[in-house]
Amino acid sequence: MAKNRPLLLAALAGLLGLVTVMALVVGRGSSIQTAAGTSNLTVPSANMQLNPNWKAQPASGERVSLPWANIKVNPDSSNEAQNEPFVAVNPNNPNHMVVGANSWLVGNGRYEVFAYVSFDGGGTWAASQPYIDRNAGRINAADPTVAFGPNGDVYFAFVALTPSPGAVAVSRSSDGGLTWTHQSWATSFANAADKPALAAANGKLYVFYQGASLYNTVSSDGATWSAPSAIEANGRNAYPVVDSRGNVSVFYNTNTSIKMARVSGRVSISTVANTTPLQQRPAGYRASIYPAAGVDSAGNMYVAWADGRNSGRGNDILFSRSTDGRIWSAPVTLNSDSGSADQLMPALAVSSNGTVSVAWLDNRNDSANINYDVYMATSYNRGQSFGANTRVTEVSSNPNNDPRMQGTMIGDYFALASGNGVMYSLWTDTRNNNQDIYMAPVTVRSPNN
């Protein structure tokens, strides 16, 4: 969820007050720009109210039978929205995972980040709240990202905002994510910061975020942080990866390309691929070009993104690979549908044996291009070719079927992580007449195993 320094908040509040009957407009939020003026994305209003006249709008279509379950992650039974999942799996215990998500469960139209923890491979979940230091006075929090430290500690980064400019915080848990005992501020309160991404390597924490530039800051103790280092002025939507030698690289997009920067030691930047803006869509929720990336034990690197280059086919998921991080393969389209459906919000994960999976939002089961499912494709030869597209969701979701968001937002990304022969796919789901986080443990063992 891109959110940057508030611009003319008083004028915005007055405008929203004039249109009290337009709950949908309130749900769309306020247009907010960075100091550099490079973003036109929106954030939800600080007090986005439920529409009292809202009626459920479930997706059409029958439930399909799948060899894996669709499991609800957030344990609440409210009609409040949860979206924008991020997931990390404990490298020492593939049954232990921590999911971060935005949640409106705190009430009064506010949103905050929640952590959802499972120790049994996603069978059961417990909820906790990592935002524990309110000294900065920011009432909302969003954009969760999670990483495991070498000793099993869990780190959870997010942006806190409203009414002040966004600032990035990092919380730590020593019991697997059930409770949070420490929080530090990785950025200053003076300059707007947005969309953090987190990596743990070499006994350090690396935080990436965007403002007037794409920046990173480093901590050796999780409490104090280095001065920010600028990577690229037009960089957005950072996605860091750590290879088996502890080298840290970050993928990101500019207005016209996907790029990768190595940030361990001397910074070097390479262009992965040029991008084409997304085509117009009939659905109203926000979506953008956003890279998802991974690296295997041999150092091969992989990246996927949504792209609008295939005219007449809708937006598609493209994929590229590299053996050295400098030379990248020509992008290939992963979705195999033959129509003009939209494919958006890719997530990518690499297993310990080099299996590469990419999951994404997919409209192919709705001729109107509104309702969505999650589909996935898997490669067993380190990204050189992919198998058939596989449906992950047993029911479709209607993005309009939520009383809080009302079709304006389902989050800017979905999530995917690797376990022991399983890919854990997570998405925003509206089958319960509100936005929930759902997960599917998809078996991806090679046919040759």
Structural description of this entry:
The chain is mainly beta and 449 residues long. It has two helices and 30 strands. The strands form eight sheets. It has a four-stranded antiparallel β-sheet, with no helix packed on it. A hairpin with a 3-residue loop joins strand 28 and strand 29 (422-429).
The tally of strands reads 30
The biggest sheet, with number of strands, parallel, antiparallel or mixed sense and barrel status, is:
4 strands, antiparallel
- Tell me the distance between the termini: 39 Å
Query: Level of helix content?
Result: under 10%
Beta fraction of the residues?
35-45%
Strand order of the largest sheet: 3-30-29-28
Helix run count: 2
Give a quick summary of the entry.
By secondary structure, the chain is mainly β. The chain has helices spanning 9-18, 23-28; strands spanning 30-31, 42-43, 71-72, 82-89, 97-103, 112-118, 126-128, 140-148, 154-161, 167-173, 182-185, 194-201, 204-210, 214-219, 229-232, 236-242, 248-253, 257-262, 268-274, 292-295, 301-307, 316-322, 332-333, 343-350, 356-362, 373-379, 390-391, 415-418, 422-429, 436-443.
Q: What descriptors fit this protein?
A:
four-stranded antiparallel β-sheet; 4% helix; disordered N terminus; globular; 30 strands; mainly beta; 2 helices; single chain; 449 residues
What layout of secondary structure does this protein have?
Layout (H helix, E strand, L loop, with lengths): L8 H10 L4 H6 L1 E2 L10 E2 L27 E2 L9 E8 L7 E7 L8 E7 L7 E3 L11 E9 L5 E8 L5 E7 L8 E4 L8 E8 L2 E7 L3 E6 L9 E4 L3 E7 L5 E6 L3 E6 L5 E7 L17 E4 L5 E7 L8 E7 L9 E2 L9 E8 L5 E7 L10 E7 L10 E2 L23 E4 L3 E8 L6 E8 L6
Antiparallel strand pairs: 1-2, 3-30, 4-5, 5-6, 6-7, 8-9, 9-10, 10-11, 12-13, 13-14, 14-15, 16-17, 17-18, 18-19, 20-21, 21-22, 22-23, 24-25, 25-26, 26-27, 28-29, 29-30
